[in-house]
Amino acid sequence: MSKEDKFFEALRDFGGYAGRAGFLLEETAEGRMDISDGFKEITDVKKKCRDSFGPLTERMYKAYKDPAQLDAARGLIDRMYRMVDMEKSVLGQLDMTVAGEAPEEYALMARLVSSSFLEMKKILDYTDKISENYMKMEARCRRIYTYEDRGDDCYRKVMRNLYGEETKAAELVYWKEIFDHLEEVLDAAAGAVPLLQKIITKY
After folding, report:
1. How would you write the pLDDT of the chain (203 residues) with one tens digit per residue?
2. Among 88, 98, 123, 166, which has the highest number of CB atoms less than 10 A from its own CB?
3. Total number of domains constituting the chain
4. 37: Cβ–Cβ under 8 A, 6 or more apart, which residues?
């Protein structure tokens, strides 16, 4: 197994943690999992990400010498880690207290985030045979961009509703912060796409 193969193997495991984080967010948003249980599990997921971050970065430096590919790989890892961290923040805030009733757009945003993470995981799963799966990977990359666009529309809609209705100040601040995090997660997922494409184009 080459150094790059070992890097992608570790990256696939890392992507699995991100996929699990997205799943937990959607399950709690849909009411299929208790928020406290979801927060406990995502805390464990974040710990596993943190523990694997160093070894993954070490494999990255062994696999790549070209500065452009090295920057792309580093940026990809950083974004995936930040995505999990922001999702943990959302569930942590919900676990502490909920200000008012959740806007109906919350469940949709959670599904979009989960779908983006699932696509990212599937893309990474294809890295064991990149040349054979390149077109499938590209198709899934485009889906992530679609989820980001839908998330932008959803974010604008919920902000209009929050500011346009007689929303209590505490509820407005509370839900705006949560939706800000969710939009950042979708932006980070979309931002990870070109970085991943840079490190697989040589295949």
Report:
1. 799 999 999 999 999 999 999 999 999 999 999 999 999 999 999 999 999 999 999 999 999 989 999 999 999 999 999 999 999 999 999 999 888 889 999 999 999 999 999 999 999 999 888 888 889 999 999 999 999 999 999 999 999 998 886 778 888 999 999 999 999 999 999 999 999 988 887 65
2. 123
3. 1
4. none
> Cβ(195)–Cβ(75) under 8 Å?
yes
The parent domain of residue 182 ranges over 3-200
Rounded Cα distance between 144 and 119, Å, is 7
Complete DSSP assignment for 107-163: HHHHHHHHHHHHHHHHHHHGGGGHHHHHHHHHHHHHHHHHHHHHHHHHHHHHHHHHH
Rg (the chain; Cα; Å): 18
From the CB of residue 201, how many other CB atoms can be counted at a distance below 10 Å?
A: 11
The pTM for the full model equals 0.92
Burial class (CB in 10 A: 0-12, 13-18, 19+), 45: buried
